[in-house]
Amino acid sequence: MSTDSFLENHLQNLLNQSGLDPKKADKEFWNRFQNHLPIIQRLFEEIYGNHPSGEQEFLNLLQSLVEAYQSREKGLKKRDQEKQTQDIWFLSNKLAGMSLYVDRFAGDLKKMKSKLSHFEELGVNFLHLMPLFESPEGESDGGYAVSDFRKVDARFGTLEELIELRKKMHQKGMYLLLDIVLNHTSHHHEWARKAKAGDPHYQDFFYTYDNRWIPNEFEEAMPEIFPESAPGNFTWNEEMGKWVMTVFHTYQWDLNYTNPKVFRAMLENIFFYGNLGVDLLRIDAPAFIWKQTGTTCQNLPQAHTLLRLIKQCVQVSTPGMAILGEAIVAPKEIMKYFGTGEFIAQECDFAYNATQMALQWDMLASGETQVMLNAQHEILQKPYGTSWITYTRCHDDIGLGYDNYMIEQAGKDPFRHRQFLKEYYSFSGEQWMSPARGALFSSNPKTGDARISGTLASLCGLEKAQIENNAPAIDQSIQKILMMQAHSIFLGGLPMLFYGDEVGYTNDYSYQNDPGKSYDNRWMHRPKIDWEKVARKDQAGTVENRIFSGTKRLLEIRKEYALFSDLSNISWMSPHNIHVAGFVRRIGNERMYCVFNFSDKAAYLTWYAFREQGEGAEKLYDHWTNSEVIIGSSQEYLILEPYGFRILEPR
Ligand code: GLC
Fold first, then answer.
1. What amino acid positions are annotated as catalytic residues?
2. pTM confidence score
3. What is the extent of the structural domain holding 642?
């Protein structure tokens, strides 16, 4: 590839043509560009060094970096600088998020503007607007099958309205999170349409094959993502007369990142989102972006190289935009998305703490904490300077993908344990002891795997309790909902609530009558918001009021104390009582004990539990119940009611 002097010449040309002022006005950018260039070149060559158009595409990429910077609004450049003056802006305890579908939440982008007060009241200032770009109705996978990465889908409004909303959010001190669906496009995307029409240039944007030879070879080692609704990983396209790789649904065509043109085109889309004013970019399904026969086609080293390359490029041109890698994979694999080796903390700034999320549900069903504790030595490896998205529910299912050994070390049989969890959370229509009402998602009879759908409230028992009009059960489910939220809000990371959960939405089964949704039961937990129901949050004593005000209070407590920032400052308390999960958050001499009783019986904790953390503490102030607890001698206990929790500060 390029020699040094060749590159020098090219850079000089780039400077001349772009009209950049490397000494004054664009000095900071040019410094960043030059600092990152050697790594960008190295990473690019690792992947595309042997590709016939590798060199040309590298030069094009440099051009894209300059163009992205030049088309960045002044206001966003200023925001970039402001973020840089803070330690690491996204670790702050002052941030709290919510993920939502604009149409199901507000109607459209215009109406979203008038809903911002809802978030302000709740204490949410980071919005994940679920995919907004054009996606064919009925074949949309909730917007994750994109047919135009730059055109806002008419059902939400226009690009201008999105920009207006973002501006209003920024003015109010809020942050914006959007997705880039990196792994695939809709089969209606222009590239796919051209490929279908027989254009070989665009067929090379996807994995297309004349016969089953290579697809069969791939299939031998590839698992299925949606085994019920989209079995297999390839789809025959009659128009093109070829097989095409479709790992998710048949209408989602996997992009071929061995082609550098695909990489650059998608990088330019990333910059496009950066320049819309996105503060955190969620890279959808990054684990899947590199494919190789003989492997599962997930988590391959080249996928990490590509993400590192993206991170480097973003740092040059849109540096205020942080990166979230949506890798919902095995615990050890998730950790690698933060970067490894010399790239530690140089890949994704955020990942979903999917392991802890699933283990919270494990604890809620089993009433025991060992499996969760067995996972901590992996989870705690998160490098300083990176952060988690912490959550109890999101738009997706709950996967039970943590390792078997974590279950075995707790003295349980992994197969039976997962069987128990699936039975506990899925409602078969028969009378069953579990209070939870969810459903199995993507059951795979070949492997026995299944995931779980359902809203936070339904899985915590509210749906059943309301149907039975059982007041104590309603109380208990609210207690569970708030405990689950508290656990993820105080854990460390950016808490991301899921819309509807703040007012206790139970499952919505209307998706079953919509042919574009009925094959996907994740829609049961993606409600259409009824603002009359939401208004009940203001009537004291209603379910909506109790859940909303409780959630709001949790976020308030978190915002008050800097030790809840994600400074990698969490340690787990030893399990004096196996039903109680407890962690300590610290900063300097300050500390806060957060303890959660996952069982349906009262749980007792002695002074020793707190003493073990060094300084000991006899007098503790609970920020949740606003009361003081004294646990002085060995006869005195902290008693946690069923599903109770405390946020305790030593006094
Ligand atoms: C991600 C999304 C999920 C979608 C999938 C395919 O996992 O969260 O909703 O189905 O990617 O795009």
1. 284, 326
2. 0.97
3. 569-650
